[in-house]
Specification:
The chain is α+β, with helices and mostly antiparallel strands and about 475 residues long. It has 2 domains: about 30-220, 3-Layer(aba) Sandwich (Creatine Amidinohydrolase, Chain A, domain 1), CATH 3.40.350; about 220-480, Alpha-Beta Complex (Creatine Amidinohydrolase), CATH 3.90.230. It contains 16 helices and 17 strands. The protein has helices at about 5-10, 40-55, 75-80, 110-115, 125-130, 140-150, 170-180, 190-200, 210-220, 220-245, 250-265, 330-345, 355-370, 375-390, 465-470, 475-480, and strands at about 55-60, 90-95, 100-105, 135, 155, 205-210, 270, 275-280, 300-305, 305-310, 310-315, 315-320, 425, 430-435, 440, 445-450, 455. A 6-stranded mixed beta sheet has the order 4-3-2-1-5-6, with helices on both faces. Strand 10 and strand 11 (about 310-315) form a beta hairpin. Helix 10 (about 220-245) packs across helix 11 and helix 12 (about 330-345) packs antiparallel against helix 13 (about 355-370).
């Protein structure tokens, strides 16, 4: 690698502090209230909640402390409206008074001595959080009793909380399995909380807050977009390091380790989801994550991994040859898929029913397939079928939303009216040729703009020549060996 290339690569790994106005040295915040966004961002979100609940109140409980020596991460819904990163906190948002009150456990001096300062009830906490009041949890029961006496509606999240490495569908499925398990049968924490609210405020109607919060989370604010943009940059840098590192004889988990180094180096608090590093025959499984296979000559590597960065995530996937060079069959398979994939992406724009856009993509794909020089009949047949499915689309979506969760809330809600500016999602259409034992999917993080879209992960190599060129550069292991 030339000196210029090495410098460019080093600069790419510098934290982009400017993206959310963070002060130098604040890349990884250390405190009970976030530095990811200013207080007014959370206040604006709470104001939108107030506008929708009218005379009612919204009550959210934060997650509990982690068992053992595990890092604390707040639940997504609670974080979204508060930014508070303390266990067993409760937030009450009052639609009538337009005030929000945070209820905290008593000061835990032992935890402070071990883990650092926390906020506790009082003026200091009000100043730190931007909330109108911060009180002890002991004051919460009387407040709920008064709300119940007045018969005001209470909104609270009713689906299971989501922490890191998960999405709402994951925790909902787990809660259902637990409830239906004849040797377990536990209700979710949210179900228990709802029952306690009913008992404490029997005259109040208990309503689900999740649809309101989901609606707010669906279209991202400029500050949210900036954080997802940085999460995408980190994901792309991790994937590119894995491309450089890859060689025959390595294990899948070794490629994962390289990306994780980049994630942590860039200030990520963890991973958005388990690493989907699939090689050879494992590429047929969309969520393969065992990571134990050794890379062999002639393998394709499907690498799908992204960080949990400041509570927001991305999702990017690339495919590359284990030994750095595509075989002729792989090249044909990859190239026709990439051309159809780019055609699908090119149709993205707001204000048009999604089904119409997918049909338009199918027509473009059909034209691409018709003009492509195939040498493999099986790949040609698979490409024709792929294009036909899109051309015949009557619904569906481009892919899944991204945001605080990797499969974020709001998927499919804009099928009829069209995509909305500020909406963020990925595309990841799977392409398989069973007769050739070939399977792959690419994935990019996309932002819908006023007239079109922006591909946030476009800098990560996609073309065959660019991938092979990058893979000739030394990986981290090779650079360390030269020292």
């Amino acid at each position: 690698m030339s000196i210029r290339s090495a410098v460019t690569r080093s600069l790419a790994l510098l934290p982009a502090l400017w993206i959310v106005g963070a002060a130098p040295g604040a890349q990884i915040h250390q405190g009970p209230f976030t530095e990811d966004f200013p207080r007014e961002e959370f206040a604006a979100r709470r104001a939108k909640v107030m506008a929708q609940i009218g005379d009612g109140v919204a009550i959210l409980q934060g997650t509990i402390e982690r068992p053992g020596e595990q890092p604390f991460r707040q639940s997504n819904q609670f974080y979204y409206v508060s930014g508070v990163e303390l266990p067993r906190a409760i937030l009450l948002i009052d639609g009538r008074s337009k005030r929000s009150t945070l209820y905290l456990p008593p000061r835990n001096t032992g935890r402070e001595r071990a883990q650092g300062p926390e906020i506790f009830a009082g003026d200091e906490a009000v100043a730190a959080t931007g909330l109108e009041a911060v009180a002890l949890r002991d004051d919460f029961a009387p407040a709920v009793a008064l709300i119940g006496k007045e018969g005001r509606p209470i909104y609270t999240p009713q689906r299971p909380e989501v922490l890191g490495n998960a999405s709402a569908g994951d925790t909902r499925s787990q809660a259902t399995a637990t409830r239906n398990d004849p040797w377990d049968g536990r209700p979710s924490r949210e179900t228990v909380f709802v029952e306690k609210l009913k008992a404490a405020a029997p005259q109040s109607d208990i309503r689900d807050l999740d649809p309101i919060l989901d609606g707010l989370r669906f279209v991202k604010s400029p500050r949210e977009i900036a954080v997802v943009r940085e999460a995408t940059r980190i994901a792309g840098l991790g994937i590119m390091e894995a491309m450089r590192e890859a060689e025959v004889g390595m294990y899948e988990y070794e490629l994962q380790a390289v990306a994780e180094y980049v994630f942590k180096k860039m200030g990520s608090q963890g991973a958005a989801y388990f690493a989907l590093v699939a090689t050879g025959p494992n590429t047929v499984y969309s969520h393969y994550h065992r990571g134990t296979r050794k890379l062999a000559k002639g393998d394709l590597v499907q690498f799908d991994y992204a960080p949990d960065y400041r509570y927001y995530v991305s999702d990017v996937t690339r495919v590359f040859p284990a030994d750095g060079t595509f075989t002729p069959v792989q090249r044909e398979f990859y190239t026709i898929y990439l051309r159809m994939y780019l055609a699908l992406m090119s149709t993205i724009r707001p204000g048009v029913p999604v089904a119409d856009l997918l049909q338009e993509a199918g027509a473009k794909m059909e034209s691409i397939v018709a003009g492509f020089q195939f040498s493999n009949a099986n790949i040609k047949a698979a490409a024709q079928a792929f294009a036909a499915r899109y051309k015949a689309s009557r619904g569906g979506s481009y892919g899944h939303s991204i945001g605080i969760e990797v499969h974020d809330v709001g998927r499919g809600t804009t099928q009829a009216v069209g995509l909305l500016p500020g909406q963020m999602f990925t595309i990841e259409p799977a392409f398989r040729v069973a007769e050739e034992n070939l399977a792959m999917r690419l994935e990019d993080a996309l932002l819908v703009t006023e007239k079109s879209y922006e591909n946030l992960s476009a800098f990560v190599p996609l073309e065959v020549a660019d991938i092979e060129k990058l893979m000739k550069e030394p990986g981290i292991s090779q650079l360390l060996k030269k020292r």
